[in-house]
């Protein structure tokens, strides 16, 4: 493996991790879940990215989680 | 929550966990794990011998060899080596004998998967999430205050406490909640301890939450009062968060990392700009705020923040806070290893035995163990470990890495905070942490007070105090109690040696203040929201309308009640003639440890009901310790005849002085101040009684449940019924060879339905 590939792979790994910890991959996970349950069945509506993120913060309004001290 | 899943059932009727034969193995046989662990290659042996030797050497350097100074690197090595040994051997023992996770069972993230709240998350990512949710200002503050007893007691308690108590609690609660579909601690208490124990646990949780939020708010008030720079830069986080919230809502939904980076740049700009603005006449006039108006401001802020929609303020602030938390803690770890400060604090000071320390009063036992709660044993974690995390966990065996391992990380944060506090000059430490009642709030008064303490090697001049204040860009550093300013001076002192030199101290100081204030304000907002929902739920039993959480008036009313409750304690703290932090901080620690006792009591009942008496000591030992510490501390706070320790003794002393017609007494210089002391001590005393009573009820009901289980040879469990899993994932931070081989079988499958993984 060349140095360039190693660096690229490390950067990709870091980006994957940061996105995961920040929760940025939530919509991708939702889509993957939706597809695994409903397949590509167009009958079951799938939330758009914008709808999903609205729904996500709105759910936190009714189900708050503590942060520790 | 469907009712059927909550019926206790016999643990023996093992459900059929035969996996789908079309899939590669979803779990490794436990004997394979054991064989891998028992396979001691020479390299492995050499590594563990080296870890043990280095750890042992570090402890010898800290505890036995007592030169003039001790290098901070020994704290780091002692901590890391002990954590590694505790994780590798003790948590493994708990896993093997007590919890016995079964990867053939699906976790709630799998069998309740909805792609939103319940979603299997990569273990390393979840570790980051969980750590960000548990670690806040607590582990940064407690060790700073406990440093007055010397470096050794705090270090031993943080490191040994986490291995045998704190990490055990987090691991157990996470595991038990996961086995119950992610049920909360309150629900588990009701299931395991019955109505009385469950109700006591609920009321205790609610009051404990109020105290914790109040004292966190007190820490931030003390850090920002009379600091124009701090008020400006922390105040700027509000418009920055609002901007981030709108950006995510309307402009680019979901671009969390991108906006967090933008937010971070704006934060740094706010810190730099704060220095410039505090330097101007109008800026200093506008942003220099006294403690009381600042406390009122925080209360008003707390109310508004808790009723605003999450997307506008809480969510973006959370992103910033996560970003800052992981970044700054990593940076501090690197800096401590690079700088390796020499520490001149004695191993044990006379305050450990005399109990007359000016920072927090009371002797080592029990007060060290309540002053340092977070980092060693933190009950609040039980609320997180039974909240979001169990709903995201992929495989049962990962609970060890996330629950036990996550808490070890928090403990390491506490050790670094301790090192940072210890690295500053002792004279400055005492001048910063003694209450204004003792120092008079002036550099001369503080120097006279510190030099009058009669501690060997501890002296300070008014010039040094003034110069230090100038270096960190503050008006004064005298009596900046609460731990946060001290930690910030320590962090600034360490960081300026890595980057920027003494000219950068003021920046690093305010960076650290900002970092702590961010966590605290997020915790205050989130804590108020959680408490409001708990109150609405409880009130709903009497007035059903309150159960409707979308009812505006009810939401505002209950939010108002919760804010008023913590606000009252906050105002009491900032106006307290006795100092505030030194009288209230023990309540914070006691509250947190009592919550830990409650969580461990619930765990003990669960273990007993499963009939696992042979290993019940794993829970009973930390429970016993937490119970003894908190009950002793509470009793001393209630009954001690020493006024600086006992709330009612203080109350009686001041009441008597008032009755005798005196117009000043002790550190209270007016009748109004004396009346305030009488009022405050009464409230604090009553709170102590409430806490200890509730905790005793919970522990008693847990003992009762344990005894019943022993008598009836119980084998019952409230776990959800087992469902066979259909996914695989390794359990620790690195996949073992056997796990890698299995993972390869999964990766070799055709891509349809394959889950994204990233194994290196």
TrEMBL record, chain A:
<dbReference type="InterPro" id="IPR007423">
    <property type="entry name" value="Sel_put"/>
</dbReference>
<protein>
    <submittedName>
        <fullName>YbdD/YjiX family protein</fullName>
    </submittedName>
</protein>
<dbReference type="Pfam" id="PF04328">
    <property type="entry name" value="Sel_put"/>
</dbReference>
TrEMBL record, chain B:
<feature type="region of interest" description="Disordered">
    <location>
        <begin position="1"/>
        <end position="21"/>
    </location>
</feature>
<comment type="similarity">
    <text>Belongs to the peptide transporter carbon starvation (CstA) (TC 2.A.114) family.</text>
</comment>
<feature type="transmembrane region" description="Helical">
    <location>
        <begin position="292"/>
        <end position="315"/>
    </location>
</feature>
<protein>
    <submittedName>
        <fullName>Carbon starvation protein A</fullName>
    </submittedName>
</protein>
<dbReference type="InterPro" id="IPR051605">
    <property type="entry name" value="CstA"/>
</dbReference>
<feature type="transmembrane region" description="Helical">
    <location>
        <begin position="507"/>
        <end position="524"/>
    </location>
</feature>
<keyword id="KW-0472">Membrane</keyword>
<dbReference type="GO" id="GO:0009267">
    <property type="term" value="P:cellular response to starvation"/>
</dbReference>
<keyword id="KW-0813">Transport</keyword>
<feature type="transmembrane region" description="Helical">
    <location>
        <begin position="71"/>
        <end position="90"/>
    </location>
</feature>
<feature type="transmembrane region" description="Helical">
    <location>
        <begin position="131"/>
        <end position="150"/>
    </location>
</feature>
<feature type="transmembrane region" description="Helical">
    <location>
        <begin position="615"/>
        <end position="639"/>
    </location>
</feature>
<feature type="transmembrane region" description="Helical">
    <location>
        <begin position="359"/>
        <end position="380"/>
    </location>
</feature>
<feature type="transmembrane region" description="Helical">
    <location>
        <begin position="259"/>
        <end position="280"/>
    </location>
</feature>
<dbReference type="GO" id="GO:0005886">
    <property type="term" value="C:plasma membrane"/>
</dbReference>
<feature type="transmembrane region" description="Helical">
    <location>
        <begin position="322"/>
        <end position="339"/>
    </location>
</feature>
<feature type="transmembrane region" description="Helical">
    <location>
        <begin position="682"/>
        <end position="703"/>
    </location>
</feature>
<feature type="domain" description="CstA N-terminal">
    <location>
        <begin position="71"/>
        <end position="633"/>
    </location>
</feature>
<feature type="transmembrane region" description="Helical">
    <location>
        <begin position="156"/>
        <end position="178"/>
    </location>
</feature>
<feature type="transmembrane region" description="Helical">
    <location>
        <begin position="555"/>
        <end position="575"/>
    </location>
</feature>
<feature type="transmembrane region" description="Helical">
    <location>
        <begin position="199"/>
        <end position="221"/>
    </location>
</feature>
<dbReference type="InterPro" id="IPR003706">
    <property type="entry name" value="CstA_N"/>
</dbReference>
